[in-house]
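Collaborator request, handled under Task 6.
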Amino acid sequence: MENTEQLDDIEIDGVEVESSADFAAVPDAFQRLWTPHRMVYIEAGAAVHDESCPFCVAPTLSDEKALIVARGTHAYVLLNLFPYNSGHLLVCPYRHVATYDEATAEEIAEIGSLTQEAMRVLTATSHCDGFNIGMNQGRIAGAGVANHLHQHIVPRWATDSNFFPIIAGTKAIPRLLGEVRAEVAGAWPAA
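Structure tokens returned to the collaborator:
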């Protein structure tokens, strides 16, 4: 059943929102989940300056305080302070570079090997069913910390999707960061 009802423009929090019914377009089969609440995180990332870069500061702190689970020669692994799921890890080069093409061959190789090891460790400790792995390059691509390269490793389970973050603006993370850090770091093979 097709909805042919004409929708009027509405106002939300003082901002006029246009109805898409009047736009020229051909509908596709995708449903869209609009998440404007994410703009706060994206815009906050734009304000990060080099001197306060969390990925430059983290290696100067204790592993427990910085949530670091493993340190390599050119890169290190830490828990995401704002995880999408329990065990959400980041792999960062020590050197402050913004994009993948600025990284050295040694940094790229170590980011890759640390990513593989992180997947093995997370599979063993959390029994995840899969992973989302990726890098958001630059502010426009949604990088929260746009000036320091970092790769996301997000463990996924067959039963982990829900609408709680969309409807309630809240993400349910069942385990504490310190607890997950200790478990992952303890399972990481010795160098």
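The cover message to the collaborator said: "The radius of gyration is 20 Å. Strands lie at 10-12, 15-17, 68-71, 75-79, 89-93, 130-134, 151-156. Please let us know whether this matches your experimental observations."
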